[in-house]
Amino acid sequence: MTEAPLIVPSTAGPSGPQDQDDLLAGLNPQQLAAVTYRGPALLIVAGAGSGKTSVLTRRIASLLRSREAWPSQILAITFTNKAAGEMRERVGQLVGEAARGMWISTFHSACVRILRREAEHFGFTKSFTIYDSGDSRALIKRLVKEHEADAYGLTPASVQGRISKLKNELQDSESYARDANMSDPAERVFVEIFADYQRRLRKANAFDFDDLIGQTVYLFRAFPKVADTYRRRFRHILVDEYQDTNHAQYALIHELTRPVSADAPDPYASNGMMIFEPETTPELAGASLTVVGDSDQSIYAFRGADIRNISEFERDFPGAKVVLLEQNYRSTQNILSAANAVIGHNFDRKDKKLWSDRGDGDKIVGFTGYSQHDEAQFVADEVEALHRAGMPYSEMAVFYRTNSQSRALEEIFIRSAVPYKIMGGTKFYERAEIKDALAYLISVANPADEMSVRRILNKPRRGIGDVTETAIARFADDQGISFRDALSMPSQLGVGPKIQAAIGQLDAVLTEATALMLPASGEVPPPTVVADGLSLLLAKSGYLDALRASRDPQDEARVENLDEFVAVARDFARNNPEGTIADFLTEVALVSDADDLDDESGSVSMMTMHTAKGLEFDAVFVTGVEEDLIPHRISAGEPGGPQEERRLFYVGITRARKRLHLSLAMTRAQFGEVSVAMPSRFLQEIPAELVDWRQSPGDVNSRGGTQSRALNARRGGGFGGSGGDRFGVKPLAPRDRITPLSTAMDKFPNKVTGKVRDNGDLELAAGDRIRHDDFGEGRVDAVTGEGAKRIAHVRFDAAGLKKLLIKIAPIEKL
DNA sequence: CTCTGTTTTTTTTTT
DNA sequence: AAAAACAGAG
């Protein structure tokens, strides 16, 4: 099809073509096409590191500069809030103030924004709350118990998973019940729980994560007039990471890109997936849609991402233009060759080869440790070596498959005094004390949310237990009032006077906070209300006092966390002077792991490979490259599982600009039990000549002698039996030697070396000789840092240069 | 109702 | 190994 642009880009006029020159400068022909093409639908297939963010921002800037679109007509969807912020900033650099009116956000944030405006249409209020997966799990857990569903083999986790999956497919309990085998009692109970769950959410004036998308689609379909206002508004829709959209998100995009007809058609065609239907005479054509993605980087099938959304884009949008970006501007050729080789083993993909003109670069470094601690030590040493060679810590990253793997790395990093930060894991907002604080806020903002009120009922301990809780719930039911309102009449609950007083006290605090944060008399509260209200709640409820009075050392940290949370609220007030409590809660509910990545501090980033998507670093360490980890054991059974794992590994590899390290351990402790780990099958998919094995799986085998470690056992050429020479192993330079011979199998395996130890008072000075449990004897070169963070720089006789945190290192002065 | 000690489960990835 | 769930005493 010939691409006659619907709108000719940047014709004459005050904003002439020369305005575009800087936007188009330095682009290759494909990138140029991706920026300048105009038409109803455009698919940009963007391989890793092919400059897609730059293309996307320039495309937006180009639309704005040529006056083809007002900022308010642009909706750009990114994968994380962090990515959204970055894109806003980059567009801002290109077009200045015009960047303001655009919607650049995640699917979830955009939907919250729409729902807050339109919630009243279908029985919610604009102060609805958002349940994160922990909240919905708690609710489901209660329902499972009430329905005694465990008797049918339904666990909270499985129910939650199934409901989420169904919602991603835009199913509700009724539509599911129609096709389900209802003679199976387990199915019947499941449907009941699903329906109940939905009822409770509605009663609590709350949406879960999946509802944010699904209910927005429902809203658009049930209220075409509402949908039309958004269709008229957004004329250019751009979606990043399109390969990771699920069906609900796909449907949302379709709803938004429908043509708007002058006469709103009443019964909405329920088969309405075909959007360019000729029979209506549209008053306005559908919005132009640009999607960017790479099916090789689709790693979210487990949460409903449907790779067909991208692979069948051309069928869904007939006449769509497709642009392929294959030149990689990020990595060296060695890294790309490895990536290409790995991903080439996936069979059902369009062949696509990334290439680079940056030269071969360094070889990939491989290392096999005896244990996960040994592996971590390798990473720490290598990080230090790179840092000494001039690479900032912030340009290095360590990836792993599962969050639990971070522990061993963290231990060694602390001991080696390597600055690091962990992205994700137990997130700040999932800590119990923060969730408690949030529950207090929600109880004020959305009193209908019974879950939150119940949560704070006995936090801090007020002597209110199960019995009282049930009594309150029954009273509320009988009187037809909400759980929250029942708290205001403690004397009628039929509980003892002591407990009445406790309930009355809680009610008074909540009431006071409500008066402060949501003043009845339409006056505008100062920006700091959220922070002030939060402080008030925490202080007057006795929550902080209880923590301070406790002698559990963890509670000290909890107080600090709460202080930080209040600081977050103050920060929020500064950035959003008009932000309401609902805005604050939204922001908190939607922050993701990748979002709190800020590169201003110089520390090594540690994260899962999933979190790593969309990021890049000079040096990357992919750890735990073992069978049962990557590919993960659980994925082996799932259809398409191993393929998705391979894509995940591919994502990890392609994050690296200059140096890539692949490491594994030969034993790994899991569940508190040590087991033998085998090298990942993905390792043999990388051509041997690309990898410089410092210590190969074969080497380690010949020492450990458990069995044939199956790396490459079935490959004839290049790889072979257990002979280390076949791996091209180089002897380690003494300085880089990681594992002294004496610490081989017998000493290193799985020793939890980070046990409680306090050398706080140990005085060391340059010139002192010391002995270290693992590294042997050495001489102190220098001591830096203060107090608990004093660091000894030690030159070990056998193990080379190390940094040690004096307070906890297993050392003694000689 | 709360505290303490014991048993069981957990680790796949996330907006 | 650590967190969560559970059971029983006070």
Explain what you see:
One of its GO terms (biological process) is recombinational repair. The chain is built from 28 helices and 24 strands. The chain is α/β, with parallel strands linked by helices and 814 residues long. The model is unreliable at 1-18, 264-281 and 702-756 (pLDDT under 50). It is globular and about 80 Å long. The structure holds a DNA duplex (15 and 10 nucleotides).
Task: Give a nutshell description of this structure.
By secondary structure, the chain is α/β, with parallel strands linked by helices. 39% of the residues lie in helices and 14% in strands.
- What is the count of helical runs? 28
Q: By CATH's scheme, which homologous superfamily of the largest domain applies? A: P-loop containing nucleotide triphosphate hydrolases
* Largest sheet properties: 7 strands, parallel
Radius of gyration: 29 Å
Extract low-pLDDT stretches.
1-18, 264-281, 702-756
Q: What's the level 1 CATH class of the largest domain?
A: Alpha Beta
* Tally of distinct domains: 5
Nearest-integer average pLDDT: 81
Describe the SSE topology.
Elements: H1 21-24, H2 29-36, E1 41-46, H3 52-65, E2 74-78, H4 81-95, E3 103-106, H5 107-118, E4 129-131, H6 133-146, H7 156-168, H8 173-179, H9 185-203, E5 206-208, H10 209-222, H11 224-233, E6 236-239, H12 247-256, E7 260-261, E8 282-284, E9 288-293, H13 308-311, H14 313-316, E10 321-325, H15 333-343, E11 364-369, H16 372-388, E12 396-400, H17 406-415, E13 420-422, H18 432-445, H19 450-457, H20 466-479, H21 483-486, H22 497-517, H23 529-540, H24 543-549, H25 553-575, H26 581-590, E14 604-608, E15 617-622, H27 641-653, E16 656-665, E17 667-670, E18 673-676, E19 691-695, H28 697-704, E20 769-772, E21 776-784, E22 791-796, E23 800-805, E24 811-813
Parallel strand pairs: 1-9, 1-10, 2-3, 2-6, 4-5, 6-9, 11-16, 11-19, 12-14, 12-15, 13-14, 15-16
Antiparallel strand pairs: 7-8, 17-18, 20-21, 20-24, 21-22, 22-23
Helix pairs in contact: 2-3, 3-4, 5-10, 6-7, 8-9, 10-11, 10-12, 15-27, 16-17, 18-19, 18-22, 22-23, 23-25
This protein binds a DNA duplex (15 and 10 nucleotides) through residues 79-81, 106-109, 132-133, 209-210, 212-213, 299-300, 302-303, 401-405, 407, 424, 458, 461, 463-468, 590, 592-593, 608-611, 629, 632-635, 644-645, 648, 669-672, 752.
Region (Disordered): 1-20, 698-733
GO molecular function, one term: 3'-5' DNA helicase activity
GO cellular component, one term: cytosol
